[in-house]
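Late entry, written up from scratch paper. The run itself happened at the end of the previous shift, but nothing got recorded in the book at the time, so transcribing now.
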Amino acid sequence: DAAERALSGVNATAAPATTPRTRRSKSTGGSSSSGRRRGGGRPKGSGTRGTQALELVRAKPGITIPELAEAMEIQQNYLYRVMPDLSEQGLVVKSGRGWHVKE
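Output as recorded:
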């Protein structure tokens, strides 16, 4: 009954009204599809991996990224992001291929 009343006066043969679609340009800025914002959260290098890497550098001055990766059982490419962040924070310094605690 309610459905019939709701549909009364609707022309079954008429095409539904459509609105023209417009293209949305791709934006190079703005938010990503995942909805995560940049700049929020904890600072780079402040996680447990950064702390663990710093402790290893203290224990073995001159340690290289491959040695750090092996000791931490992680991929080297992760450390190529972590170590420069620790350096920017003034915690470590690179000398040759090895890393040292900044004094």
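The first strand starts at residue 63 and ends at 64.
(Scratch paper discarded after transcription.)
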